[in-house]
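Summary for the steering committee. One of the milestones for this cycle was to obtain a three-dimensional model of the protein with zinc ion bound, which we needed before selecting residues for the alanine scan. The sequence and ligand used are listed below.
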Amino acid sequence: MFSFFRGMRPLVFALLLAGLMVQSHDSRASALSWAGEDLGDFVVRPAKLESDTYVELAQQLSEERLLEDIADGLNAWLILPVDIGMRFAECGQSNAFYDPNEREVLMCLELFEGEREVFAAYYETEEEIEGAVNGSFLFTVFHEVGHALVDVLEIPFTGREEDTADSLAAWWLIDGDDGEESAIAGALSFYTDPEEAAEVDESDFADEHSLSQQRYYTLTCLVYGSDTDKYANLLEEEWLTEARAEQCPAEFERLTSTWYTLLDAHLKE
Ligand SMILES: [Zn+2]
């Protein structure tokens, strides 16, 4: 199970994972025998609720077709060997996961509260807070989609899978239409990580994710690098250091060429 944020997974997920571990790995077999036809889609599944707490929120999100629109966008672009599920879930924590056994992206309903708390400290108006929560949510979805694509398309990567998932999300948002704001909101959600701001310990260094502040700077760098004139304020207002900013256009260029290369055989058109 690949999560979005660092930290402990609740017992319920540990148990779920233990139960799923015994299943056979049929995904590998299907990927190997796949001849490149479009056999799969991102498919939105019903929310997984454990109590009455999020019934209303889940209903509202379903009516807004938030995940459905994201799935439609991905399906318009990608050729997939198998379906990949997407669903909201009550997780007991503000996080998101990709579960390779169920082949599905789980977006925790707790994220909406968790991120709201984070952004409420940094924005004044309700509109700004809502925009940041939604933007950060989008970044999180595409991060988990990154894990899903690495899994079903067997996308090669060096370094950490978590960084690969972040880079897919950054590329998809920044290179797509008007997604930079979401990438910035995603970056901010890392910058304001209260736990890490307080103290970094050995478990953070040992974690499979890069440090939150590193994720923040890399994302901000990619947005800045995508258009240094449009995003000059990121440097002027010291969202980035001068030293890193110099490399950002090259980092963004490499990001886009890498993903077009990696997904070349899987993009429609
Ligand atoms: Zn992840």
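Key point for the committee: The CA atoms of residues 222 and 251 lie 7 Å apart.
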